[in-house]
Amino acid sequence: MKCLVTGASGFVGANLVHELLARGHTVRALVRPRSNRRGLDGAACELVEGDVTDREAVTRAVQGCHWCFHVAATYALWMRDYRPMFTTNVEGTRIVLEAATRAGCERIVYTSTVGCIGLPRPRHGSIVPSDESTPVSIRQMSNPYKLSKWQAEQLALQLARAGSPVVIVNPSAPIGPRDVKPTPTGRIILDFLNRALPAYVDTGLNWVHVRDVAVGHILAAERGRVGERYILGHAEGNWTLRQTLQVLSELTGLPAPRWRIPWWVAFLAACAEEVRSRFTGQPPRAPLAGVRMARYKMFFNPAKAIRELGLPQTPPREAFAEAIDWFRAHGYVQAP
User: Fold this and answer.
1) 287 lies in a domain?
2) With bands split at pLDDT 50, 70 and 90, how would you rate the model's confidence at 147?
3) What tens digit of pLDDT does each residue of 212-235 get?
4) How many domains does the chain contain in total?
5) pLDDT score recorded for residue 335
6) How far apart are CA 151 and CA 187, in angstroms?
7) Could you tell me if residue 253 is inside a domain?
8) For residue 195, what pLDDT is reported?
9) How are beta strands 121-123 and 107-111 bridged, if at all?
């Protein structure tokens, strides 16, 4: 298949390009002119410069493609001005999905996020992981990033109902190689390696190997039902942050932080950081949006994707080991 991948220089996008090529597909990678393309090193793909908000550029890029993977998004928990985020994440999604539909793509896979899935529910003292059927509303979109992705996902669902061959995937917390930026989840690993994580909050995430997320996109194009959502996560990847840090300690030999910060202390510190960032323009170390999300253990159940798509389940411990090796090999780790 000839495939268009938007956001091809990003963490998930770059890994998707490599996986498509490994399976014999032809890839046209849409990248912004000044993007860091380190994650595409060694990928024999066609590079096309353009922005997802440029209707003419997107229309040209998608011509002749059988599959379209719309991965591009602005992923940030703090910005001085969030309007560009909504332009990219919402209007850019409209432009890409409509252009792919007009071009006659057989499958269009839209990359959403588990932030658009309903929050996990406590039951009898434990957390019940959410799945695609967990009730959710716009009131749960607690920061601009989640809200922009929610609006984009609603648009994708609307186009699917109108006849576009759109399948939606909702990755949880991917980790692994080629996290060039790095992402906020990769930053946890990197801060641990650089000993810049003196304490932690009581939260949790569903960890998944980024390679499994990339393969999940391809499986969604091959087997996904139009108009359906699929959580791309790991069935055994629901770890508290304390468990995560312990695994990192076992893999590296570095000590895990011992001190747990009460949530309200982290919240007040984040408020102070946000005020400072407004004056300096520098992103806060702990964005308020991230601290608000940390109030919940973001545990998810990917059973639907495993059952219907055959989503692979690489052990999260292996994903962490590969992420550590990649960060070290590419000069991200300064601490001895």
Assistant:
1) no
2) very high
3) 999 999 999 999 999 999 999 999
4) 1
5) 65
6) 26
7) no
8) 93
9) unpaired
In this prediction, residue 264 carries a pLDDT of 66
Residue 178 in any domain: the answer is yes
Residue 165's CATH number: 3.40.50.720
Cα 272 to Cα 249: distance, rounded to the nearest angstrom: 30
Q: Which residues pair with 126 in a beta bridge?
A: 123
| Residue 136 structural domain | 2-247+292-328
Residue 175 falls inside a structural domain: yes
